[in-house]
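ok new one. same drill as before - structure tokens go in, u give me an amino acid for every spot. 619 of them this time. try not to just spam alanines like last time pls lmao
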């Protein structure tokens, strides 16, 4: 009887994974390759034959206008400007409101808020340590290019940490500050620790059930990683992995290049991975039939907490040697979600795929390429002379090669050389081509919902005032709102929830635990700032439109509030009330001093001075 572990591995790889790979190859990968080629400005991909068939051969133009790259980078920068407004991922946690009459004991509000603050700090420290914001920049670029991006976390990874401490040599206990400052010495050590981190996944390495639009509800999600010999051997020392199974798989590989290219790796990795010494390691999150994990001679799975069902939600790791083998025993997923999260650039209802920037503007890119190539080809023809040649009227041995000073011999019976050869230039018919190119560039802005103003381009509409420019940029930014909401729901909220659940389940510090609600703040902060800024500008414009309301308007407060909506510290640019009062008092004192020096009255305008009041009495 075959080992249950091998049955599970065969089911996961040979059945589920191969099926998901085939589905993705048929439904998504062709568009991904087209997106990648359009972004890089390449014609050589087999999937881009529709961009160019017979053109580009010989003398004809091979130019590729990278309009797609401009829009992808614009969308990427615009998304980051919203998602990383303060340089941090936009999220927050707060104690869950307790409904009246709720059963059980609850913490006092002050203690709950304090614990929540400590939990938030722990999660923030984890994200800062793994440079989550920097990694999310990669996720944003992938999303704009392919229409979706995948992240996961928390994932426990080993990392080396430098520990620095100060002590007095020879003392095994704490000493007084005086001794420490006089005799203390700094020491440094390197320690290997486990830390929860966030990771951005290569979309070409993720396979999921395309029969449902929500990857959390399908059969499961596979994350494939191609590991070198050394990295794969390191897994043998990682807790939870089967060392013997790992070494058995390594013995099957040789250091040669006789492997086959797997088209599912993506354009860049295919050639690099044509090596037998690279080991495919496949991580699985999803449902499997219960019969595959109930019995095994090498490992056991605790199913006591699993309700009666034909399928069980598990996590396990499989490696592919000559046959797939489970190298990390399956465990039941203790959480109601899979720790792999996906966000979409533009969602397509009831479909597993998504629209990306290159796909939205595919026709415009194709037309701009064709028009520019045709214009350059026509310029090449019209700017060079062509030769008409009558061979019967030329002397024998003549050739048609042209160069300065070239002479031709005609036959003896030819009286006029124009009877034998003539030069002419094709007409230049590209007069309306630039207009068509501009038209399709405008269409690309409309198709992607990324106006040229986001690239700093205002030649098609030049605003007259700073207010008009602000409104133009504000209107352009509204197009990114749906993508920001997708990032909140697909990335930020589940990621922070994962870190919160991890610390809640594993941390020995009870002082950080509590019932908290996770909130993704990307869209709400973006919407609040955009709408509030617009309302402030509208109110200020109305208040200053007539003299009566202008006199009663606190202009400085409008400026301060507008600065806050733009994440600008108003105290750096505008004076406080105390500073304004001090400036007014200084100006008044300066006026009084100047009046005394000039011998004139000191007082309000129109008020009579002491000398003026005594003139009538003296006379």
């Amino acid at each position: 009887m075959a080992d249950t572990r091998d049955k599970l591995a065969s089911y996961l790889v040979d059945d589920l994974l191969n099926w998901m790979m085939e589905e993705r190859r048929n439904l998504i990968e062709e568009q991904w390759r087209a997106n990648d080629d359009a972004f890089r400005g390449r014609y050589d991909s087999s999937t881009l034959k529709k961009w160019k068939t017979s053109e580009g051969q010989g003398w004809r133009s091979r130019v590729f206008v990278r309009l797609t790259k401009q829009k992808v980078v614009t969308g990427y920068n615009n998304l980051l400007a919203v998602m990383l407004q303060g340089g941090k991922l936009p999220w927050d946690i707060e104690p869950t409101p307790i409904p009246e009459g709720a059963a059980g004991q609850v913490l006092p509000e002050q203690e709950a808020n304090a614990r929540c603050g400590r939990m938030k700090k722990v999660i923030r420290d984890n994200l800062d340590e793994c440079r989550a914001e920097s990694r999310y920049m990669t996720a944003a670029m992938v999303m704009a290019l392919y229409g979706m991006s995948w992240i996961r976390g928390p994932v426990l990874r080993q990392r080396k940490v430098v520990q620095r401490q100060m002590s007095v040599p020879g003392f095994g206990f704490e000493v007084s500050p005086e001794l420490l400052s006089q005799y203390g010495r700094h020491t440094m050590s390197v320690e290997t620790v486990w830390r929860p981190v966030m990771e951005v996944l290569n979309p070409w390495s993720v396979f999921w059930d395309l029969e449902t639009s929500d990857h959390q509800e399908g059969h499961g999600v596979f994350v494939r990683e191609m590991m070198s010999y050394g990295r794969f051997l390191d897994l043998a020392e990682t807790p939870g992995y089967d060392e013997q199974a790992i070494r058995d798989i390594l013995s099957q590989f040789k250091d040669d290049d006789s492997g086959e290219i797997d088209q599912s790796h993506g354009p860049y990795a295919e050639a690099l991975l044509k090596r037998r010494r690279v080991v495919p390691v496949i991580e699985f999150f999803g449902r499997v039939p219960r019969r595959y994990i109930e019995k095994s001679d090498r490992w056991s799975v605790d199913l006591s907490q699993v309700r009666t069902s034909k399928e069980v939600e598990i996590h396990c790791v499989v490696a592919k040697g000559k046959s797939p083998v489970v190298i990390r025993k399956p465990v039941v997923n203790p959480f109601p979600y899979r720790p792999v999260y996906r966000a979409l650039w533009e969602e397509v209802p009831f479909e597993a795929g998504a629209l990306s920037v290159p796909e939205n503007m595919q026709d415009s890119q194709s037309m701009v390429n064709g028009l520019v190539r045709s214009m350059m080809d026509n310029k090449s023809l019209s700017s060079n002379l062509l030769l008409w040649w009558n061979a019967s009227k030329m002397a024998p041995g003549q050739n048609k090669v042209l160069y300065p000073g070239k002479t031709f011999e005609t036959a003896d019976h030819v009286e006029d050389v124009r009877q034998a050869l003539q030069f002419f230039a094709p007409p230049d018919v590209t007069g309306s081509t630039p207009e068509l190119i501009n038209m399709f560039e405008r269409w690309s802005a409309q198709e992607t919902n990324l106006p040229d103003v986001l690239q700093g381009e205002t030649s098609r509409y030049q605003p007259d005032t700073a207010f008009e420019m602000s409104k133009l940029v504000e209107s352009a930014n509204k197009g990114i709102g749906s993508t920001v909401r997708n990032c909140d729901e697909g990335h930020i909220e589940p990621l922070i929830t994962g870190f919160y659940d991890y610390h809640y389940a594993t941390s020995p510090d009870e002082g950080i635990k509590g019932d908290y609600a996770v909130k993704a703040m990307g869209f709400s902060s973006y919407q609040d700032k955009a709408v509030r800024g617009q309302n402030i500008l509208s109110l200020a414009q109305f208040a200053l439109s007539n003299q009566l309301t202008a006199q009663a308007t606190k202009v400085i407060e409008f400026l301060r509030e507008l600065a806050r909506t733009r994440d600008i510290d108003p105290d750096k640019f505008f004076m406080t009330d105390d500073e304004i009062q001090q400036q007014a008092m200084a100006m008044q004192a300066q006026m009084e001093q100047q009046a005394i020096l000039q011998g004139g009255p000191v007082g309000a305008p129109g008020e009579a001075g002491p000398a003026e009041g005594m003139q009538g009495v003296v006379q």
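The CA atoms of residues 100 and 106 lie 11 Å apart. and btw The longest strand covers residues 148-167.
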